[in-house]
Amino acid sequence: MPETIDEKQTLPLAIVSLVLGFLSCVMFLILTAIPAVICGHISLSRLKYDPTLYNKNSKSIAIAGIFLGYLGIIISVVIVANFFMVIFDWGGLAVIPTK
Fold it and tell me: b/e for 70-89, b at 16 or more Cβ within 10 A?
């Protein structure tokens, strides 16, 4: 007798969240990190509202997308802060000439 196949589908917003979160970490773009977090939270709320509609992997995929989205935001903020520290010398690295 063949095994039963799970007919439930994966939530598409969870997959979108995971892809955007991965892109935000690889390309260091906050423009993909914020939608990753938003899509992940929306997909978790949809799973909470009707958990029988989608398969079990959807929650894990949504959580991974949220995690990667927040990680992408943190990486982007650190890169921008380091950029401004170097350009405007906010790190105190300027050489002050002495007389």
Answer: bebbebbeeeeeeeeeeeee
Tell me the whole-structure pTM to 2 decimals. Answer: 0.80
Instruction: Quote the CA–CA distance of 42 and 44 in Å, as a whole number.
Output: 5
Sequence-distant (6+) residues with CB within 8 A of 17 are: 36, 37, 39, 40, 43, 61, 62, 65, 66, 69
Q: What number of other Cβ atoms are within 10 A of residue 63's Cβ?
A: 16
Burial 11-20 (b: 16+ CB within 10 A, else e): bebbbbbbbb
* pLDDT for 7 beyond 80: no
Residue type for position 62: A
